[in-house]
Amino acid sequence: MLPLRFPPSFRQNTMSRIPALLIVGVLAFSASAAAQTDLWKLAQKHADTHRFSTLFTAQQVTSDLANDNDIDQAIQWCREMGITKVYLETFRTQHWAESETIAHARDRFRKAGFLVSGCVTTTRVGKISTGWNLISCYTAEETQQQTKQIFEFTAGLFDEIMIDDFWFTDCQCDQCEKARAAERVVVDGKTFDVDGDQWSDYRRELMLQVSKNLVLKPAREVNPNVSVIIKYPQWYDNFQERGYDVVRQTQVFDQTWVGTEIRDEFDERWGGRGRTTAYFLQSWVEGLSGRKCGGGWYDTLGTTPATYLSQARQTILGGANESMLFNAGNLRFKDPGRSDAEALRKALPELLQLAKQVRKRQAIGVTMYKPPNSDGENDRRVFEFVGMMGIPFVTTDRFPNDADAAFFSVHALHDADFVKKLAQFLQTKRPVILTDSLAQKIAGDIDLSGKHVSILTFDGRMENAYSLPAKELSMLRDVVLKPLNLSITAPQRTAIYCYSDGSWVVENFNDQRIQVTINGRSQSVEANHWASQWMEQR
């Protein structure tokens, strides 16, 4: 990796700025303490702060909730897990759960004190895509009509419906190709113009109009009280390519959710992602959606108990009000689901306390800018790896004019006025970090020679974010954290979350214990674990 470019020297800031507040010790709950706690009562008590939920897929509704004995066992398991809300799926991969089975399970769960909502997973609906064989061609009338039927059916059973994150298309059939070239979308017999001839242009308009005309409109005609949730996937760099439009769809849907899955980065099938994906994406969608954002959804694929708990923590740290544990069948009957579920059950008291503490505070850090519908090119996935460098970050979908320090990647070029805005930002001498790919693209248009400009060299490999030598990383932190009145010493593969009152959380992704110092206060953090310090608020 080429060296980081940074100012040649910078005095370490060791400010201590909140002497009147008292440090509360690191959150730590033992397994025995969790075992002695009635998690059902505890979860109900904290439900307004953060709620844990789970989902029974359409297939599981049929197989696991078909009689009262099975429902009793499912209710008991949810109570023991501290789960206070369940989602019952009506459709997935051409499987329709029977309305009588759904209604009976819904009523039993409600009678037992649970909140109950519906869910739809739009896999293998109507005509199948020429791409992934789970995905559908929404240009096709048969797909459109079955989509309408699914949501009319579901709205007749529930006042709240979540759409799992298969609500996209990658089809390039002849019918799609002709419509794309003509820059025209036809949905439910109505024609809509498309602004552009790229696949991303066509698919975003297509899925927006299908959402409005074949999901929201028919669902509300059946049930005027229905609230429909769009859940955005984990793969944020590809949203626009497959038809997600996070601005316009967020406007038309009643709520947003987001997939906050974190995989073990060395897993042969699911690895290759950074360990702070959940925090970045949850906080970014929260900022974009405002009060519409309801929560984060994570699963057991490619996880260990450590990575599973990291999903839970980061979903909460990102601001979610609810965590969806996908799915009940995997968590109850399969591995690694059972071990993941047991780890979360033991950690539930500390996670609820974490949510309580986070809710009271304002996060601070270097501001990461990702405009909506932006492609990172060589910088894809960069945010989740930079988040492991022991530098606190916050996120935004708008240019961070008021940020104390900022991080910019190629994604920023989706903002047509970015270079002009950056030039104005640099005139203030506030520190910025740029990726090498972005710096190369704009070097001829803007002066990047200032001492407050640091350029991280990735050479197209995001993993290089945490291979920066310790001395250079320390100097980078000194530069970018000075305006935030923060001084941090920590190794690579560490995530740090800071708050305006001096509180903080540390996640250690290393396989050995580490020592972290924040504003002169040191803390040892066990391997693949976390620690926190909270300032008592008066």
In a nutshell, what does this entry contain?
With 538 residues, the protein is α/β, with parallel strands linked by helices. The chain is built from 17 helices and 24 strands.
Describe it:
The model is unreliable at 5-32 (pLDDT under 50). The strands form 5 sheets. The chain has an 8-stranded parallel barrel, surrounded by 6 helices. A 5-stranded antiparallel beta sheet has the order 1-24-21-20-13, with no helix packed on it. The chain has 17 helices and 24 strands. It starts with 22 loop residues before the first strand and ends with a strand.
Largest sheet: 8 strands, parallel, barrel
- The CATH class assignment of the largest domain is Alpha Beta
Q: What's the CATH topology name of the largest domain?
A: TIM Barrel
Assess the beta-strand content as a share of residues: 15-25%
Physical arrangement of strands within the biggest beta sheet: 2-3-5-6-9-10-11-12
Can you tell me the overall shape?
Answer: globular
Beginning-to-end CA distance, first to last residue? 47 Å
Q: In CATH, what is the homologous superfamily of the largest domain?
A: Glycosidases
How helical, in percent, are the residues? 25-40%
Helix-strand category: alpha/beta
Protein name: Glycoside hydrolase family 42 N-terminal domain-containing protein
Organism: Crateriforma conspicua
Signal peptide: 1-35
Keywords: Signal
